[in-house]
Design a protein that fits this description.
By secondary structure, this protein is an alpha+beta fold. It has seven helices and four strands; from the N terminus they run ααβββααααβα.
Length: 163
C-alpha cells in the first residue's frame, strides 16, 4: 500500500469516527504524474495537493472551494507567497544552510541553474503531483484534518519551519 493510500484510509477512518457520511468523506485521488500539468479545482470540490520528487514528498497543502489560484498556480511562481513550493526550492538552492539528506544529493546544485522565473516549469517537469479531492460540503475542520493526515503520513520536507 502506497503512502497516498495510507492518507486516504486514515482520513476515511477519522471521518467515520466523526460521524461524517461516507458519500461526503470519499476521497478522489487525482495522480497527475511526472511531468504534470496543474488542473483547475473542480466545482463543488476542495482538497489537498501534494508534490513528490522521486521518493521524497516535498509539500502538501490545502485549498478550499474558493481557492482556485492556490490550487492551480500559486506553487509554480516563487513571488506568489513565501509558503509555496517554488519559493522553498529557491530558498533551499540559494540561501538555506539546512542539509536535507533525503533529497537527491545533486538537487541543490541542479536548482541553482534554474532561473527563478522558470522554477514552475522545473516543478512541472520533475515533480509528481497528487491531488486528494473531497466534497466542498465538508467543513473546514475536515479539510484541515485531511491536510494534517497528509503531513503526518508523507513527512513532506518543505513543511513548517524547515529553513
Amino acid at each position: 500500500m502506497g503512502t497516498i493510500d495510507l492518507v486516504v484510509r486514515a482520513f476515511q477512518e477519522w471521518a467515520n469516527e466523526a460521524g461524517i457520511d461516507d458519500s461526503l468523506s470519499r476521497v478522489q485521488v487525482e495522480d497527475l504524474g511526472v511531468p504534470h500539468r496543474p488542473t483547475a479545482l473542480p466545482a463543488g470540490r476542495q482538497g489537498v495537493y501534494t508534490f513528490q520528487l522521486q521518493s521524497v514528498w516535498l509539500k502538501a497543502g490545502k485549498a478550499g472551494p474558493k481557492s482556485g489560484a492556490r490550487w492551480q498556480s500559486q506553487h509554480y511562481k516563487a513571488t506568489r507567497s513565501m509558503s509555496n513550493l517554488s519559493w522553498s526550492l529557491l530558498e533551499y538552492a540559494h540561501r538555506s544552510t539546512v542539509d536535507i539528506p533525503v533529497l537527491p544529493p545533486t538537487l541543490r546544485e541542479q536548482l541553482r541553474t534554474v532561473d527563478p522565473d522558470q522554477m514552475g516549469d522545473w516543478i512541472k517537469r520533475h515533480a509528481r503531483r497528487v491531488n486528494l479531492l473531497v466534497s466542498a460540503s465538508l467543513d473546514g475542520v475536515a479539510l484541515t484534518q485531511l491536510e494534517y493526515i497528509a503531513h503526518v503520513q508523507l513527512r513532506a520536507v518543505f513543511e513548517g519551519r524547515w529553513n
